[in-house]
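Researcher: I've been going back and forth with a colleague about how TrkA family potassium uptake protein might be arranged in three dimensions. Neither of us has a model we trust, so I'd like an independent prediction. The organism is Dubosiella muris, in case that matters for your notes. Sequence below.
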Amino acid sequence: MRNQKQSFYTIIIGCGRLGATLADALSAQGKDVTIVDKSQSAFRKLSCGFAGMTKLGNGLNLDTLSEIEMAHADEVLVVTDNDNVNVMIAQMAQTIYHVDHVVARLYDPDKKVIMQNAGMDVVCPCELSFAAMQAFIEPGKETSHAA
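Model: Here is an independent structure prediction for TrkA family potassium uptake protein. You can compare it with whatever you and your colleague have in mind.
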């Protein structure tokens, strides 16, 4: 059960490198964080200072989402390694649980439009990497060898 005294509740689905990093950072800011993953070993990526909750379960499972009180979430960050799963969970967060702020990571930029048309924010690593690389290779721009 989560800490009801906290005013801002964030749920993160997926405890890979990005999910664990987000969970640690938000926890360090004093936010109420619950992170969900289907693999117990994934939670080893969290720092020893993580003060939030972990939930072993499938982010597509309605029972799991009810147990973590998704209906009370202020934001949901969906960062599993599967774009289709991320789209589905994000849509569930928005349509079933009426979460106001939903952000999903999508590796395939072609799927981004689906999410944006539904009013959800999308982070696409391919596009971010392209923009960063392009800044280094555009003619006339000074480049730094340290990244």
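Researcher: What would you highlight for our discussion?
Model: I'd start with this: The chain has a mean pLDDT of 89. After that, consider the following. The chain has one domain: 9-137.
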